[in-house]
Amino acid sequence: MNTSSSDRIYTQHHVWLLPQGEQEYVLGITQFAQEQLGDIVFVDLPELGLQTQVDEACSVVESVKSASDIICPVQGEIVQTNEALIDEPELINESPYEQGWIVRIKGQQSSEIKGNMTQDEYNSYVSDTSK
């Protein structure tokens, strides 16, 4: 995955999706989210084949501060998990848009993704909510 963070779809739950063809996405959490969580110490990866639902947790990320559900913005099926996070959960802190991705989902078309934002819209959202 050698793309910029502007190629992604963002949500109010601080999740990003990187389209991989028409109906497949790589999912991770944003730079802002990992900064708010602090040092990530554990990632609870879902089972392959799990059916994801919009606005439901598809994974859990635990940091030294708290545990946070990763809220899925797309209905679909988990087709791959980032197994590197089992031994190196800190990859999310070090590289949230590249090596720190969490799952790959086969699901809906991007026009059907709830609450999708561009990078600029997401940056404005984060700026407004942190005031």
Annotation keywords:
131 residues, alpha+beta, OB fold (Dihydrolipoamide Acetyltransferase, E2P), 6-stranded antiparallel β-sheet
- Binned, the helix content reads 10-25%
Share of residues in strands: 25-35%
Distance from N terminus to C terminus (CA atoms, Å) equals 33 Å
Using the 3D structure, state the CATH architecture. Beta Barrel
Identify the strand order in the major beta sheet. 1-2-3-9-8-5
CATH topology: OB fold (Dihydrolipoamide Acetyltransferase, E2P)
Annotation, overall tally of beta strands: 9
> Shape, please?
globular
Give the total of domains: 1
Poorly predicted residue ranges: none
The ordered H/E elements are EEEHEEEEEHHEH
Short description:
The chain has 131 residues and is an alpha+beta fold.
Describe this structure in words.
The protein has about 130 residues and is of the alpha+beta class. It is about 20% helix and about 35% strand. It contains four helices and nine strands; from the N terminus they run βββαβββββααβα. The strands form two sheets. It has a six-stranded antiparallel sheet with strand order 1-2-3-9-8-5. β1 and β2 (about 15-20) form a beta hairpin. The longest helix has 11 residues, at about 120-130. About 35% of the residues are buried. The model has no long low-confidence stretch (mean pLDDT about 90).
